[in-house]
Amino acid sequence: MSLYNDYIKEIEERKGQGLHPKPIDSADLLSEIILQIKDVNSPNRKDCLNFFIYNTLPGTTSAAGKKAYFLKDIILGKEIVNEITPDFAFELLSHMKGGTSIEVLLDLALGNDVAIAKQAADVLKTQVYLYDADTARLKEAYTNGNATAAAILESYANAEFFTKLPEIAEEIKVVTFIAGEGDISTDLLSPGNQAHSRSDRELHGKCMITPQAQDEIKALQAQHPDKSVMLIAEKGTMGVGSSRMSGVNNVALWTGKQASPYIPFVNIAPIVGGTNGISPIFLTTVDVTGGIGIDLKNWVKKTDANGELVRDENGETVLEQVYSVATGTVLTINTKTKKLYNGDQELIDISRSFTPQKLEFIKAGGSYAIVFGKKIQTFACKVLGIDIPTVFAPSKEVSNPGQGLTAVEKIFNKNAVGNTPGKVLHAGSDVRVEVNIVGSQDTTGLMTAQELESMAAKVISPIVDGAYQSGCHTASVWDKKAQANIPKLMQFMNDFGLITARDPKGVYHAMTDVIHKVLNDITIDDWAIIIGGDSHTRMSKGVAFGADSGTVALALATGEASMPIPESVKVTFKGTMKSYMDFRDVVHATQAQMLHKFGGENVFQGRIIEVHIGTLTADQAFTFTDWSAEMKAKASICISEDDTLIESLEIAKGRIQIMIDKGMDNATKVLQGLINKANKRIEEIKTGDKPALRPDANAKYYAEVEIDLDIINEPMIADPDVNNKDVSKRYTHDTIRPLSFYGGTKKVDLGFIGSCMVHKGDMKILAQMLKNIEKQEGKVEFKAPLVVAPPTYNIVDELKAEGDWEVLQKYSGFEFDDNAPKSAARTEYENMLYLERPGCNLCMGNQEKASKGDTVMATSTRLFQGRVVEDTAEKKGESLLSSTPVVVLSTVLGRTPSIEEYKKAVEGINLTKFAPSHKLLVG
């Protein structure tokens, strides 16, 4: 009983943290528990029964398999447990969500005992997580005349697993809790520096917002026991930034309801709201849990008597309150009228929160059940040879005769499944699409594995062209947390069919490459759809969507994703880049010029940015598509010239070949398959059979923005504006300032060059600048630390071959060593250059951070409070985001440079240049 004794010891340790026993996923541990249940004289028997019934994870965990077989023996009378009757055993099986439990139920339903078969069939009729092996058994039994199989199939055909569920309450009473003012980052709900604990839901729940906020939520629940607490982003958008299934899990843990009395710490039905709505990526995650997300619109832009916007002394629009949602306000959500009320007063129409599809998600307890339910209904009808009865709300199909297609509309039409044959779909249509590439990253990967286990999936869908499990978010420090979690994750994903950054067999060298860069390399088709477990899944080929760990799991298991076709905003360019400007400045200027043109309205939010970039290869163009997450866009699509796309595909082929040469391909030769597909795509372009993706000339856009390169005269910096009097305007990524704003005097405490925003060219710029500075000043002396983390090992190898890595080594005071990786996070930095291991490093903020209160100048993506740098009591930490040359010069000077200093430092440097295409990039 050594495992059981270890478990008891762990329970005592968790008690000291205010935690319950950790849910059981190990068959070996559960075997010891079952032995003590069988022993009526065991002093631990009562505890073991409790662990078995209430604390064992379902799905395809090894513990779930052991539990299902023991319950089967109880039902068949092979084992007698007084506390678990056969009827109760069937109830427990009904909550186990697939995997071995389905196998057991089919064994019983198709067996010879008529009474047991009927009970098993009744339970099976409520289950939806069936896979090919399960449905094959049903089909075979039906074909052989089995009446029970026929009854199950008839039930599935009529979708009784859905129709017999309780209806949604007409009125839902909520009490409000203002979680923060301004945009609420998912970092507030699930901090990146606590990523190691995400798969331990109860433990991770303790990091949501603050302990004080948790106490306030509990107080509201005690005061209003009949109401749900609704978390609100006052004057902002809820859930910006990363996808964070863990963020929604935490909200549900504190404010939702338990999904099953026999599954611990898995809650559903959270309710969230935001003055400016819910971030699209976060709203998808809310749907996964059967929750409700509401666009409150409780503040609006104030206008004067002439209808003109009222502005403050800084030229910012003034907001006025339409209605209050102050903490403690009791509101009523009416799901029939689809209105929000305060007492009898109607506040706002919330129909968008209760579309027919969303109502189905709420009723079913989450979107997965609907996805799998539709599949099982279709299967049953096909076997029975009948038409599919109309049970689920028909997918909304928007088709406008004579209207052309945007790029994303073309991709969705090509990849759509289950829609009306021959019907051309436009934005607003609800579409199920096949997914080509899937990515899982390491701080959410354990949760993705849990989701795959809970939906009883065992192998990747054959529809998926390729999938990758990264190790980049835990690359900086190989500490005990990483050593405990990452090998287990890599083994699971490798077995599931993904290409993994670390080889469980130890054949190839561990790769900690930034996931987005790898996904960008393995995307070999501009018509592809990519789903990845990170908000920066924004490839510059095809269209990519960042997603929560559950949606990633669904894509891996089924090869599909469901979403409305988003509207698009067309971005084009005119003019000429100044010789001393970098493309990163164009990216920031795009955001600034768009906001200026539309009076502060972010027309990118929730939409596709169709950027007619034309002449930049995928490596360089990724700087734009990546930043579209900070623009709050749903995704971004690059429209390229044919020759540019071919060049990008050749680069991708070369990098995939390197992965193959390192031994990373698997038994099914996924990577070689990608190279073959890239060759086919190149040939299509060269022959003119299928040129690079283009929108139609008569496509319809939500808005069009033309960016004027001529007026970009100096580097552009995204500023968190940490001291803005209006709290809602801090940490938004919308404050874009020219370098001259800082007057060459703002102190910089640390610089960071790295993250998915940089490419090989940035590393070469760094090397060239250091040589320039030494030539001009006689030496390179840093007045602030400069941390450099190349995105990938491929880039490091290319830099070594081209002589640039040797330059960086010359000026560095630290260089990573894979043979002796850091085992603890760095807490202090000296004024020198650090060459860190490829990976996310400071951008993620989960392992290493800048010193509290520092002003950081970085090339990374995030400027949220506490992400890269935390506050002190005296000074707020701030992370300003800029181009590589600005970061380099800021660390050499220890302050922001003047525009004159900047121009001198980049003289003769090969910056990332961009010239608009002179070709008409339409089909």
Strand content: 15-25%
Residue ranges: pLDDT <50 for 5 or more in a row?
A: none
Silhouette? globular
In round numbers, the mean pLDDT is 94
Number of strands: 33
- Please bin the fraction of helical residues: 25-40%
Q: What is the CA-CA span between the terminal residues?
A: 69 Å
Structural class: alpha/beta
Computed over alpha carbons, the radius of gyration is 28 Å
Helix tally?
A: 31
Query: How would a textbook summarize the main sheet?
Result: 7 strands, mixed
Please write out the topology:
Layout: H1 2-15, H2 27-38, H3 45-54, H4 62-75, H5 86-94, H6 100-109, H7 114-124, H8 132-143, H9 147-157, H10 160-163, E1 171-181, E2 184-185, H11 186-189, H12 201-205, H13 211-223, E3 228-234, E4 238-240, H14 245-255, E5 257-258, E6 267-268, E7 271-274, H15 280-288, E8 292-295, E9 299-301, E10 319-321, E11 330-334, E12 339-342, E13 345-349, H16 356-364, H17 367-384, H18 407-415, E14 416-417, E15 430-434, E16 437-440, H19 445-454, E17 466-469, H20 480-496, E18 499-500, H21 515-522, E19 529-532, E20 543-546, H22 549-558, E21 560-564, E22 568-574, H23 583-597, E23 608-614, H24 618-627, E24 635-640, H25 642-661, H26 670-687, E25 703-708, E26 716-718, E27 736-738, E28 750-754, H27 760-777, E29 786-789, H28 793-802, H29 804-811, E30 812-815, E31 833-835, E32 855-858, E33 878-881, H30 884-893, H31 899-905
Parallel strand pairs: 1-3, 2-4, 3-7, 7-8, 16-17, 16-19, 17-18, 19-20, 22-23, 22-25, 23-24, 28-29, 28-32, 29-31, 30-31, 32-33
Antiparallel strand pairs: 1-11, 5-6, 9-10, 11-12, 12-13, 14-15, 15-21, 26-27
Helix pairs in contact: 2-3, 2-4, 4-5, 4-6, 5-7, 6-7, 7-9, 8-9, 9-17, 16-17, 19-22, 23-24, 25-26, 27-29, 27-30
